[in-house]
Amino acid sequence: MTLRNVPDNMCPIATEYTTMLTGDWRALRPIVDRDRCVKCATCWLYCPVQCVVEKAAWFDFNYDFCKGCGICAEECPHRAIRMVEEAEG
Amino acid sequence: MGVAFDSIGFKASLCDGCGDCMTACSKAKGGASRISIVPGAKAGTFETAICRQCGDPKCVQVCPSGALDKDNGNGIIGWDASKCVDCLLCTAGCAYGGIAVDETVARVAKCDQCDGDPACVKVCPTGALEFRKAGTIFNEYGGKEDLFVPGLSGCQGCNSELIMRHAMRKIGRNSVLATPPGCIPGMGSVGYNGKTGTKVPVFHPLLTNTASMLSGIRRYYDRIGRKDIVVMALAGDGGTSDCGFHAVSGAAERGEKVLYVCVDNEGYMNTGMQRSGTTPYGSWTSTTPVGEHMKGKTQDAKNLPLIMTAHKCRYVATASTGYMEDLYEKLDRAIEASFEGFSYLHIYSPCPTGWRIPASKVIEACRMSVDSNFNPLWEYTNTRGLRFTHSPDNAYPITEYVKMIGKYRHLSPDQLAHIQAKVDEQVALLKLMAAESPPPQAAHRAPAGSSTPAGAESSQPARREIARN
Fold first, then answer.
1. Are B129 and B10 in contact (CB under 8 A)?
2. Would the keyword 4Fe-4S turn up in this protein's UniProt record (chain A) (predicted)?
3. Residue A54: its chain B contacts at CB < 8 A?
């Protein structure tokens, strides 16, 4: 996108999205037990990054952005999510 | 987009094994209880055995007669009595003990969630059983676009990031967003070097003039006939209650048609956790340190939402991400009211970094802050007065809340007594205000938007019409 009639030195106007991958902050990785997941969407509701993605019979994570806060594992009412160390991955 | 399902959740730490759920279930279903409370691995702990309505149910796989079937509409695994051959294979197939045998009739019995209103959950005295409505919210809003880019640099577990994403998902693209200095622009939503983190027009006013700038934007859009735009702020408590307060107060007094969302993390967390006007008594912050003489903040927090009710705003409400359904309903009403006058939403937002709480415990802290009346949930309109949206009765003692949070670790019994007294005082005042207001049933049952009969009716069609163009 080009902005006409806006001098470069007047004020900065953003024309692109930030592309930060926050997944590389993660020390703990959430792992979903597909048998236990009942698709109640609790993880989606509370995920601050909103990196929970829907699959056919379970919810999974977009690890490019998951910061590993562990809220999903804490809140999952069916204990279907556990946090494992990235090193063990 | 697919579909998610509401689910009965069980919190083992709250269960005292009273068995009221089992009594209620057998009464409601007439026969054996579909839920069982069984002793846990450790003495004095309990677990449930109840159908979880699995995504990939083993009971359905082993059933030879096709009597069990998962309904992909509501997620319930239904049992057809006429097809069942009473082989009981399903009770062996289920690893969770979710299918009971009604011994009086020698047939299986399983949970059907009582058509979305489970009898067991209603009678649970401790709140260990909870009917989670996250599925309903997902089905309604999961397909809506997240209006922030995926990579925002909020801290791990940041509650403000959660609030922003859900709020903008609900509000949608027809909006102009102001984010005064604080964590919200700081995490990259406004961006820099020609890049942005927000997918709607966003700008970065000064800490002091957010509401004034929004007033101007709203007036401009009104002049060019764009009445469908939500003109809104996502501001911190500093930009609302301290530095920006005169602008907020002035805009509210003039009745500017603005939605002002205050994300209250009780301090200037973005700049290094300094105290603000809404930092509670006793809190550790970097400017109210804990040492030999000083023991955290020595003044009480100002109750900003209550101050806003004194401005006779169209809508004032407090909300918390611990109660998401409530938050979504309030966003609905706040958006509607922002086309009529000043609409103010105060959302409590625990800060894992600044409050010294583990990132994973943030939502639990949100819930406990409401359950202990530290942050009571209520809403106010200029015509109907105040009503609680979460009962302030049977609250937990404040110690249950403060023990979860590191910034209160040093509190002495005297300080705790002071906080409890202030919390009780605040709830008593809110109860007085609620008692003076029209009956809560009337306020609750009225259809959306009827609080401003003439205005709401006229604004709604205009908004839709413009949106189509």
1. yes
2. yes
3. 1-2, 4, 142
Question: What CATH number is associated with residue A43?
Answer: 3.30.70.20
Domain that holds residue A27: 22-85
B448 vs B106, residue with greater confidence: B106
- Does the global pTM surpass 0.90? no
Q: How confident is the model at residue B439 (pLDDT cuts 50, 70, 90)?
A: low
pLDDT of residue B97: 87
What count of residues does chain A have? 89
The superfamily in CATH containing domain B145-433 is Thiamin diphosphate (ThDP)-binding fold, Pyr/PP domains (3.40.50.970)
pLDDT tens-place string over residues A5-42:
666 666 667 888 988 899 999 999 999 999 899 999 99
Q: Does B321 touch chain A (CB under 8 A)?
A: yes
- Residue A16, in any domain of the structure: no
User: Is B105 a residue whose pLDDT tops 80?
Assistant: yes
ipTM > 0.95, yes or no: no
SS3 for chain A, per residue?
CCCCCCCCCCCCCCCEECCCCHHHHCCEEEEECCCCCCCCCHHHHHCCCCCEEECCCCEEECCCCCCCCCHHHHHCCCCCEEEEECCCC
> Looking at CA atoms only, how far is residue B324 from chain A in angstroms?
8
